[in-house]
Amino acid sequence: MMDLVGAVGGSVTFPLKNTGKQVDSIVWVFNITTLVTRQPFRKGKPATVIVTQNRNTERINFTDKDFLQLSKLQKNDSGVYRVQVYSSSSELPFTQEYMLRVYEHLSKPRVTVGLQNRENGTCMTNLTCSMEHGGEDVTYSWEGLGQAVNESHDGPILFISRRLGRTDMAFTCKARNPISSNFSSPILAWKLCEDDGSVSSMVFLQLLCLPILVIFFISILIHLRMRRERKEESTEGKEQMDIHQEVPHFCPSSGETTEYNTISYSNNMVPEEDSVNGLYSTVQIPKTMESPCSLPTIPGIPRPTTYENII
């Protein structure tokens, strides 16, 4: 069995061994399904190609040596391929098998930092390299940079032991599969085991600033609320003042009912005179009203309030 590899979106060629015999037909099989049948060129007859699945029509081609070419590869094209060459000079067909593996191009690998352990000024941790996608048949290796002699380590996990304060080391992970390879971003050693003091100081500052910010925001809310309440009280007081200052304009109309008293005067000097010749006075007594619309009184000018009718 011949091993073949291909990349997603690429193409692969299946080589065919020359048997030295006249070939009548060639049948290609994928797993258990017939892929294509070809009858080579003969004198007076052109080559004939029969593709069993329409979706493969544009993907299948043949070279001058009758090698099969399969293009636009997908992951599901991976599997076992078999070719059967039939010849009139042989009772049994010539058979050859292939194992095709289709891979994706690798993206940049991801590095994660494990737990840290500090003892006697030494920091110990580990780095793990992995792929998010396309992790089939991937091998990993590590390279240490910044040293007198660059070191390399195989495997996805790298164990590190270094003294605190050293900043002259960096590590990169290399991921590789049969069709591609890629490197991670450099990992600086001094960032792996930073001093706890700086971390503790940062945490302390965060815890100190948090309640201050909370108090600040609460004070702003209280101030805004009190300001709004004072504004509402000021508006209500102004409205009440406007109401008290309004005085209704009321003046009695000219047709208002007036009270009259009739007073009879008897003439003592002429007792025998008939009552018809009596003296009467009609006195109009106006109502006493306090009105803002009353005319002002001018000193020295009496206001007429009494009308006398003499009969």
From TrEMBL:
Keyword annotations of the record: Glycoprotein, Membrane, Signal, Transmembrane, Transmembrane helix
First-listed, main subcellular location of the protein, grouped into a coarse class: membrane
SUPFAM superfamilies reported for this sequence: Immunoglobulin
Name this polypeptide is given: SLAM family member 7
Transmembrane portions of the chain: 203-224
A biological-process GO annotation: T cell activation
KW Glycosyltransferase (keyword) present: no
Keyword Membrane: yes
Domain Ig-like: 109-184
Source organism superkingdom: Eukaryota
Record localization: Membrane
A cellular component annotation (GO) from this entry: external side of plasma membrane
Organism from which the protein derives: Tupaia chinensis (Chinese tree shrew)
